[in-house]
Design a protein that fits this description.
The protein is an all-alpha fold and 212 residues long. It has helices at 3-25, 33-39, 44-47, 69-81, 87-94, 98-109, 128-135, 154-166, 174-179, 183-194; strands at 53-54, 59-60. A hairpin with a 4-residue loop joins strand 1 and strand 2 (59-60). Helix 1 runs parallel beside helix 7 (128-135).
Length: 212
């Protein structure tokens, strides 16, 4: 299967997934950001420390500040269900209620997610043409269902793409997209999106997190 064919197939899958998730979210109660700030105190033990690293494999934990709220709900739900195989994150996601997840997502997203600048920084690698259909040319997810990649740690993006490619992470949209990528493609994509702006950010401890 050629790369263009994969691109079209992934885009079609993304549209289907977006339609389904939008329909589900329409009936989902909104998250409470103030309550989410209190619930997120355990999250900040890792995600509130700049450049904090996962032990094995070794990579920096993702920045969550300014991330899309809908995506964060989906990600935590995937950790809870095992589609993302991370023991600590699965334990965290399994120990909270669905309302807790929505509240924590609302807190990390702040009042609004990172907004698109409308233009990209630098020259995009060829493989980024596929990514832009969901993540935008500057790495800002085109809707709340898709994650923003702008300014995310390059090593985190790289390990996530390799996990999708190997099947360790399960996602109907990302699996076929990552399957078409070579190691050099993944490295180039990770570096490119990590350099985009406006950037995701690391939330500060609870007393000052809302002052950004």
């Amino acid at each position: 299967m050629g790369f263009i064919t994969v691109t079209r197939s992934v885009f079609a899958l993304a549209c289907c997934a977006l339609g389904l998730s939008t329909a589900v979210q329409a009936d989902t109660p909104a998250g409470d950001r103030a309550r989410g700030q209190k619930v997120a105190y355990t999250c900040l033990g890792c995600h509130g420390i700049p450049d904090y690293r996962n032990a094995y494999p070794n990579y920096r934990v993702p920045k969550l500040g300014g991330q899309h709220e809908g995506y964060l709900v989906s990600a935590l739900t995937e950790y809870r269900g095992g589609a993302r195989p991370h023991p600590t994150m699965r334990g965290q996601a399994s120990s909270v209620t669905e309302q807790d997840i929505r509240d924590v997502a609302a807190y990390f997203a702040t009042t609004t997610p990172v907004a698109s600048s409308g233009k990209a920084t630098g020259t995009a690698p060829a493989a980024a043409a596929t990514c832009a259909a969901c993540h935008g040319p500057d790495g800002v997810g085109i809707t709340g269902d898709f994650p923003t990649l702008a300014g995310q740690h390059a090593d985190y993006i790289e390990q996530a793409l390799k996990a999708y490619r190997s099947g360790k992470r399960q996602n109907a949209v990302m699996a076929p997209m990552a399957a078409a990528l070579k190691d050099e493609d993944i490295h180039a994509l990770a570096l490119y999106f990590s350099q985009q702006s406006p950037s995701l950010w690391v939330p500060l401890p609870q007393k000052t997190a809302s002052a950004r």
